[in-house]
Structures are given as structure tokens and as C-alpha cells.
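Here is my example:
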Amino acid sequence: MEYLDTTRICEATLIKNYISGSEKALELLINHHKLRIFNFINSKVNDRETAEDLFQDTFIKVIKTLKNGKYNEEGKFLPWVMRIAHNLVIDYFRKEKRIPTVENNDDYDVFQFISNHDVNVENTIIQEQIMQDLQKLIYELPEDQKEVLIMRLYRDMSFKEIAENTHVSINTALGRMRYAIINLRKLISEHQIILSP
């Protein structure tokens, strides 16, 4: 009988085997990512007991989703689990009313929250999620503010170029940018988005 090298069995196969009834497949999946996910949670809550509870809650959600046949992110198992863990950490802070506040001393600080030079896989995944959340909020802004903000921050256009492209004065373009930042800060606060990985 040949021994299977379990480290080489891809996650998609393990997921399929678990859905088909193999508890061992789930155990292998959890063990493979356990340290990475637990360390991420613990780094946010700074309490081992709370981190263990949130880790358990993360995999309860994973199990429910897999059993209900709702998992469809083939090949992206770790980012998916990390998103679940991240959301549970946010929920924990909300319940504890200990949501970290975002301080912006400069108009553009909102977009410069990624300051960790020691970027690891977990932080990269969470940063991507934060950027997605932030982009969704930008689309909730009034059209004229959204337009200026996108031109300035994503297309790196000067206010002179923005004014010319939108057929307004430079002062109007500056005003729209100012209101866009103010409104974006309000939306970040309302949606309780934590701008740090």
C-alpha cells in the first residue's frame, strides 16, 4: 500500500474530501493553517484566551460554509479563512466597544495606513481586504467628490488637471476633494472600518 504525502494533496481535494465526509481532510486543512491564523488573531486581540475563542469561531464558520456547500473560492482557502478571522476580530472589538480610532492629521492619511515594512502573508491579505472596503466606500460618495478623489489619488492628477478635466475652477476642485475626504472619514467611522492590518 502506498503512503500518500498529505502535504502534496491540494486544498481543493481536501475540501472536496471533507464535504464528502472525511473529517481527517478537515483536520489536515486546519493543522496546515492553524499557526498562521491563530498568530494573526492573537496579534490583534493580544489575549491568548480570546484568540483561541476567535480561532474556534473562525473554523465553526468555515465548517458551516463548507457543509452548506457555499464555499466557492477554489484555490483561495487561506485568504477566505483570513477574511473570516478578520471579520470576527472586528466583531469582537465592536462588542467590546474597543474599536481603535483612526486619527488623521493630514488630508491623505486615510490612504497611508500601510506602514508595516515587515509585510507578511497575513498582513498582505488583510491590507487587500481593507483596500476593497475603502474602495466600496469611495463609491458611496457624491459623484463630483468621487470623481475628484479618484483622479487625485488613483490617477495621480494635479488639481490643475482635475479642474481642466471637470470644467471647474481649481478652488472648486480643491473644495470637492476636501469634502470627499471629510465624507470618507464619516463613512469609515459609520462602517467601523479599522484601517490597520
Q: What stands out?
A: Helices lie at 11-19, 23-45, 48-67, 77-96, 121-138, 143-153, 159-166, 170-190.
